[in-house]
Specification:
Helix content: under 10%
Largest sheet: 6 strands, mixed
Number of helices: 0
Strand content: over 45%
Strand order of the largest sheet: 2-10-9-4-5-6
Number of strands: 10
């Protein structure tokens, strides 16, 4: 099982980023998926989740209205569109499969700073 996150970078406040997570080694289309983040001041926390079919999503309060989770089962890829970024969104973002919850990728660094 491999999870490869990408798309992070340095962005100014109010900017946008689109994170991607390419998955291999298990049945991606059969698993709910999640985005987590680890910030300098907090333990790893859930950001958003999506069911296997992609028709139900959940976004944590701090990201609601700014972040959108989506997936392309044909490409085995999970996405996180992040808009109106805040400095407190700075951290390392990870994708995770509900059916393989002990497996983590290397994450992608997001830095929001002017």
């Amino acid at each position: 099982v491999q999870l490869a996150e990408s798309g992070g970078g340095l962005v100014q406040p109010a900017g946008s980023l689109r994170l991607s997570c390419v998955v291999s080694g298990f049945d991606f289309s059969g698993s709910a998926m999640r985005w987590f983040r680890q910030t300098p001041t907090k333990l790893r926390e859930l950001v958003a989740s999506i069911n296997a079919g992609g028709d139900y999503t959940y976004v944590e309060d701090f990201a609601r209205g700014r972040f959108t989770i989506s997936r392309d089962n044909g490409k085995g890829t999970l996405y996180l569109q992040m808009n109106d970024l805040l400095p407190e969104d700075t951290g390392v973002y990870f994708c995770n499969a509900a059916s393989r919850s002990s497996v983590w990728g290397q994450g992608t660094q997001v830095t929001v700073s002017s």
